[in-house]
Amino acid sequence: DGGITQSPKYLFRKEGQNVTLSCEQNLNHDAMYWYRQDPGQGLRLIYYSQIVNDFQKGDIAEGYSVSREKKESFPLTVTSAQKNPTAFYLCASGGTANQETQYFGPGTRLLVL
Amino acid sequence: RKEVEQDPGPFNVPEGATVAFNCTYSNSASQSFFWYRQDCRKEPKLLMSVYSSGNEDGRFTAQLNRASQYISLLIRDSKLSDSATYLCVVNREGAGSYQLTFGKGTKLSVIP
Fold it and tell me: Please, are residues A3 and A29 in contact by the beta-carbon 8 Å criterion?
C-alpha cells in the first residue's frame, strides 16, 4: 500500500523527557511536513523539509527538532524544552511543484503524564 | 484579518439539505486553494482543490473569488456520512510556495 505511516498512535511523555515521533512515506514525495493541532485550532507548521538532508523551521519550531536522512523518513523529536507538548501531531508529504497537494498520516496523540 | 477565516459552526442540517461553507483569506498572492475534510480524531483528507473557474465533484461544488479573496464549498443532498469538519486551506505565498495555511474548520452535523 502507498501512503504515510506514523507511530505510535498514542504517546505518553514524562516531565523532562524527550520523545520521538516516527513518520514514513512510500509515495516518493520530496517534501515532508510536521504539524501540530490543538483542540479548536487550525494546524500549525512545526518543521518542513523540501529535500533530503535539508529542513526549515515552521511557525512553532521551538522545543522541537527533526532530521531528514532518508527521503522516506522525517522523525520529529519533542524535547523537554517544549513546555506544552500535549497535542495531535500530524505528518504530511507532498506539496511541491510536482505534487501540489499534501497528504497526511494518521497522526500521533502526545499526552504529558 | 486572520490568514484564513472560517465560520466555526456547527452547522446542523437534515439529510438531503444543501449547505454552504465560506472562507476568506488574507494573502492576495496565494495561488493554491483546497478543501480538506477531517473526521473526529482523524487526519485531514483532501476533499477537492479549488480552481479559478470553479469545479464540481459529484455533490460538492467549490468556488473561488480572487477579487474578494473568498472561497466557498457547496454540498448538495447532504448525507449522514458528510458529518465532519471542513478545513479551508490556502498556500502561503505566490506560486512556488507550498507551505499551507489552514483555517480552523467548519463543523457539519447531518441529522437523520
Answer: no
DSSP B58: T
Cβ distance A95 to B104 less than 8 Å, yes or no, reads: no
Q: Closest by alpha carbon to A39, among B7, B104, B11?
A: B104
Residues 6+ apart with CB under 8 A from B38: B44, B45, B84, B85, B86, B87, B105
Span B15-37, pLDDT tens digits:
999 999 999 999 888 888 999 99
* B44 → closest Cβ in A45, A100, A104: A104
Residues 6+ positions from A16 with CB-CB distance below 8 Å: A80
Beta-carbon separation of B43 and A105 below 8 A: yes
CA distance B106 to B112: 20
Which pLDDT tens digit goes with each residue over A31-90?
A: 999 999 998 888 999 999 999 999 999 999 999 999 999 999 999 999 988 889 999 999
